[in-house]
Design brief:
The protein is α+β, with helices and mostly antiparallel strands. It is 42% helix and 17% strand. Bound molecules: adenosine-5'-[phenylalaninyl-phosphate].
């Protein structure tokens, strides 16, 4: 009879070794330890044995019962751990160090272009100035030779605050403050004024593919003795060639701005259509990008600088339009849309 328990144990261990699920283990438990199970069946066979044999065999069967039960429990634990492991492995990858479940952020294309221009101008000795978005009428117009009721104001309608201040229509609004900030160094130490001031501008006007009511400009001024139009053209061409990484086709045509004399419109060949004509360039093949000119004597005077002794140039680069040209954005409104689908395409690896 003892051999029977050994044989049954071997048979059970073989079956247990191939059991690969909780269900299979449960089936084994029922077929060995259940009411009609194989181990229980051995117990039933004891009734025909002598009392002595009953004792020895009973012990063996009890041992077998305990071994089977322990082995089943151990295998069930092992199987549970395996199933948990499988579940963990089937979960999506998780990186504890990753920031919240958000797509990677990116710089706005206007920020990218602005930084690029700043780097270029800094390398040419210009300082980068920051200036307020809310300005006075004097800063935005009067100091720029645009008195009240001057028709030039019609082209730059804006948003006025109740206290008479306004949202600046042009970065030129900072010119007067810059001249006053640096005039002493110019006059007493002979340090030329070379500054750029990027900023957000606002105009109350209808929007279309190349006009927004909120857009960015970057103003630049240089004042010293003997500054001429040649200096202006040199700086403009150097900057645009650096930004576009190629020789850029530009054209200068006369332009009127009360704060420069002479004044020019600097246009660049439309990069969207290659100069063929499209809605972005109003079908002209050219995009008005950077009005500029020689600073008007009245503007220098208002800044505390003697126009008999000093001359200078100023330009007002349309940063938003420059970003459109550089990145091939056909509609200016996409840049203010806040659409991540559009804006995330311009990420650089800074
Ligand atoms: C001016 O704002 C002058 N202050 C520029 C200037 C500075 C001239 C210094 C001379 C000397 P204008 O209104 O043309 O000029 O605007 C300058 C540039 O800003 C335009 O060429 C264009 O690129 C951009 N711009 C103007 N209005 C808008 C608009 N509504 N949406 C997008 N860009 C605009």
């Amino acid at each position: 009879m003892a051999e029977k328990t050994v044989a049954l144990k071997e048979e059970f261990l073989a079956a247990l070794a191939v059991a690969d699920s909780m269900e299979a283990i449960e089936k084994l438990r029922v077929s060995y330890l259940g009411k009609n199970g194989l181990v229980t069946g051995l117990m039933k066979e004891m009734k025909d044995l002598s009392p002595e044999e009953k004792k020895t065999f009973g012990q063996k069967v009890n041992e077998l019962k305990t071994e089977v039960s322990d082995a089943l429990s151990a295998k069930a634990e092992e199987m549970k751990a395996l199933e948990i492991q499988k579940e963990i492995e089937s979960m999506p990858e998780f990186d504890v160090s990753a920031p919240a479940n958000l797509a990677r952020g990116s710089y706005h294309p206007i920020t990218l272009v602005q930084r690029e221009c700043e780097t270029i101008f800094k390398s040419m000795g210009f300082t980068v100035e920051d200036y307020s978005e809310v300005v006075t009428d004097y800063e935005c117009f009067e100091s720029l030779n645009i008195p009240k009721h001057h028709p030039a104001r019609d082209m730059q309608d804006t948003y006025y605050l109740e206290n008479g201040q306004l949202l600046k229509t042009q970065t030129s609004a900072a010119q007067n403050a810059i001249y006053k900030k640096y005039k002493d160094a110019l006059i007493h130490d002979g340090v030329p004024i070379k500054a750029i001031f990027p900023g957000r501008c606002f105009r109350n006007e209808a929007t279309d593919a190349c006009h927004e009511n909120t857009f960015f400009q970057m103003e630049g001024v240089m004042v010293d003795k003997d500054i001429s139009i040649s200096n202006l053209i040199f700086f403009m061409k150097s900057m645009l060639s650096e930004v576009f990484k190629r020789d850029v086709k530009v054209r200068l045509r006369p332009g009127f701005f009360p704060f420069v004399e002479p004044g020019f419109e600097l246009d660049i060949s439309c990069a969207i259509c290659g100069g063929e004509g499209c809605p972005s360039c109003k079908h002209s093949g050219w995009l008005e990008l950077c009005p500029c000119g020689m600073i008007h004597p009245e503007v220098l005077k208002a800044g505390g600088i003697d126009p008999e002794e000093y001359t200078g140039f100023a330009f007002g680069l349309g940063l938003t339009r420059l970003a459109m040209m550089k990145y091939g954005v056909g509609d200016i409104r996409d840049l203010n849309s806040g659409s991540l689908k559009v804006l995330s395409q311009f990420t650089d690896d800074e």
